Automatic annotation (TrEMBL):
Signal peptide: none annotated. Belongs to the RibF family. This is FAD synthase. Residues 12-166 form the FAD synthetase domain. PANTHER family: RIBOFLAVIN KINASE (PTHR22749:SF6), RIBOFLAVIN KINASE/FMN ADENYLYLTRANSFERASE (PTHR22749). It comes from Listeria marthii. Gene3D superfamilies: HUPs. Keywords: ATP-binding, FAD, Flavoprotein, FMN, Nucleotide-binding, Nucleotidyltransferase, Transferase. GO terms for biological process: FAD biosynthetic process; FMN biosynthetic process; riboflavin biosynthetic process. Its EC number is 2.7.7.2.
Amino acid sequence: MEVSHVTLEPNKDSRPAVLTIGKFDGVHLGHQTILNTALSIKKENEILTAISFSPHPLWALKQIEIYREMLTPRMEKERWLAQYGVDHLIETAFTPRYAETTPEEFVTDHLTNLHLSHIVVGSEFNFGKGRDSDVDLLRDLCKPYDIGVTSVPVIETNQTKISSTNIRAFIRRGHFIEAEQLLGHPWYITGKVENGEMIGLDDYVLPATGTYQTDAGLVKLTNNRTIQVDLPDGLQQLHMKNELS
């Protein structure tokens, strides 16, 4: 998967494409439904492009701590998006300057840099300054450019809305099975191990301190956002299973 990093509009790209847009934290079952819909619309000569944003707007603009934490920081998100069929990821830095982009500017100055036939988004999608826009406005703004727009309804499982917010809540409570039911894939923590301690986890949503069973045996999550592990030094990955204490 090709990855581009931008601060405002995407770079010009003449390749025919179908586009999807979102934060994609977790790349959960709802995101996967959107991606699969886009893949079903995409023609053989087109690529699937995704525009994603980080950090979360409420962290970027208001420094609300809870919104700093992610299910899938950059490396994990890229891995899952590639697995689910994205050819080109445009990772957009969400900044106060970017937040001033109006819906009209987003379409006329940003999306027209791409050669799009169709856009697929979730039914709750909003965009542009003030977040008071919706899918209907996106559809109206795209009409002059002959870009179709499809919205995908929010889905539920076991009467629980599939959303990154709900999944993060499960992780914080140590309910990994429930979280993975909404994710549709395993939830991993990836970090650098130094002398038996996994570090570099500041961007992850984490459960409470305690001892947990993982695919690498028992680990201890400390109160300074590190994990004590019996693994070699270097970049390592953990699959959390359940809390023991």
